[in-house]
Amino acid sequence: MEPKGDIALIGLAVMGQNLILNMNDHGFTVVAFNRTVEKVDHFLANEASGTKVLGARSIEEIVAQLKKPRRVMMLVKAGRPVDDFIEQLIPHLEPGDIIIDGGNSLFEDTNRRAKHVESKGLLYIGTGVSGGEEGARRGPSIMPGGSSAAWPAVKPIFQGIAAKVADGTPCCDWVGEQGAGHYVKMVHNGIEYGDMQLICEAYNIMKNGLGMSAQEMHEVFAEWNKGDLDSYLIEISRDILAFKDTDGAPLVDRILDTAGQKGTGKWTVVNSQDLGIPITLIAEAVYSRCVSALKDERVKAAKKLKGPRLAIPAASKPAKKTAFIDDIKSALYASKIVSYAQGYMLMRAAAAEYKWNLNYGGIALMWRGGCIIRSRFLGKIKEAYDNNPKLTNLMLDDYFRGEIKKAQKGWRNVVATAAKRGIPVPAFSTALAFYDQYRSAVLPANLLQAQRDYFGAHTYERVDQPRGQFFHTNWTGRGGATSSSTYNV
């Protein structure tokens, strides 16, 4: 019998099931497989009932049902399970067949796997898929990288099922070789951490500083979602704040304040340190989740470590309260610009380090719909890189420079007020600190270099000599003339 399957998908958790149904809706015949084969039967009899989805109960059965070149996509837990399935698949595939990892794999693992699979004569794709359950079902953002020869064979499927922007352009395009797709997804997730932390800080100031109710904050977020901050995360925050528990009280107030994480934000921060790129806001977002996990310690510390009263005086005067809420909006928007600027700085450094040719405007377009950080804001980023593909920093774009200028007074007022009232705003604060550092032609690192040379003979450069010439001073009169080698980590 002639094979009917266009693509196979291994892994029938929520994302896998919804992607299969999405593919089916777009006319593709999918072969479904799960390590626990009972899940295949259940899926076919329930969620996939009445569709063209085919079931498989072994690797051999998957391969037998696929058209050539065979396309096998995995949506399984990152790490060892991906490697295990690759090794199971390789003996049954032929040159030109394609293995696809659609999970949240570390890009370095994808680099390794792409080389390994290609050495067997096969092709490999590591792709980021963002949008959660709803995105997988209705249209996710898809960020594929790996063997470039595989792209034409998967392009119709991936672009067919991806989210579309207003003009119909799919939120999916080729990112680059080896682990480039998973790298861009990793940075996406890091920015997602930052966006969520910024929104939580805005919420915290309104709740504890201005004494606003969940309903009042719901109305603020609803208004913000009509303007420059229009985004999926603002939208769901609006909805969360309006959601009531069974007794009519706001459910959000009954959720324990300890946040989890799956590691992609941490990976972003670790890689930024390897490349020497200061993604300070994402780092603060990751560490804020770590601090939230210290719940028992924080409860004890709250009884002993005292600070000022949280209430902001503006809360008692309606006009000043409204003005301060506008300042919070400015702080959120300006900090968001900094966060994305840092994320793009990291991708530029990675492109240089790993020899990838990343399309920065195209990445913004891929994130414009379907994914968790989708927002109106991303259209402006695409415009910035369309206008200047060699833009070194998003904050230097005319539009974003102007937006920060407009927001700056309110941004500084919020950070200063929060500090005076003892309300933690680590992401707002670090964004402002980075902005001030980045715009400083001179920083106090001259003293730092002198300190390093004093205790470790690490040398320094001089402002009155050409760059690249290094000097050492015998600061105490007891040291020698020998200096340490210079290096950057």
Overall spatial form: globular
The helix/strand order is EHEHEHEHEHEHEHEHHHHHHHHHHHH
Q: What is the rounded distance between the termini?
A: 59 Å
Overall mean pLDDT: 94
Strand content: 5-15%
Helical element count?
19
Low-confidence parts, pLDDT < 50 over ≥5 residues? Answer: none
Structural category is: alpha/beta
Kindly report the spatial arrangement of strands forming the biggest sheet. 3-2-1-4-5-6-7-8
Question: What composes the largest sheet?
Answer: 8 strands, mixed
Task: Count every beta strand, where a strand is a DSSP E run of 2 or more residues.
Answer: 8
The radius of gyration computed from the alpha-carbon positions, rounded to a whole number of angstroms, is 26 Å
How helical, in percent, are the residues? 40-55%
Explain how this protein is built:
This protein is of the alpha/beta class. 53% of the residues lie in helices and 7% in strands. The protein has helices at residues 14-25, 38-45, 59-64, 80-89, 107-119, 132-138, 151-161, 180-209, 214-224, 232-242, 264-275, 280-292, 295-304, 318-354, 360-366, 377-387, 398-421, 426-438, 445-456; strands at 7-10, 30-33, 54-55, 71-74, 98-101, 123-130, 141-146, 176-177. The protein has an 8-stranded mixed sheet with strand order 3-2-1-4-5-6-7-8, sandwiched between helices. The longest helix is centred in the C-terminal third of the chain and has 37 residues, at 318-354. It starts with 6 loop residues before the first strand and ends in a 33-residue tail after the last helix. The mean pLDDT is 94.
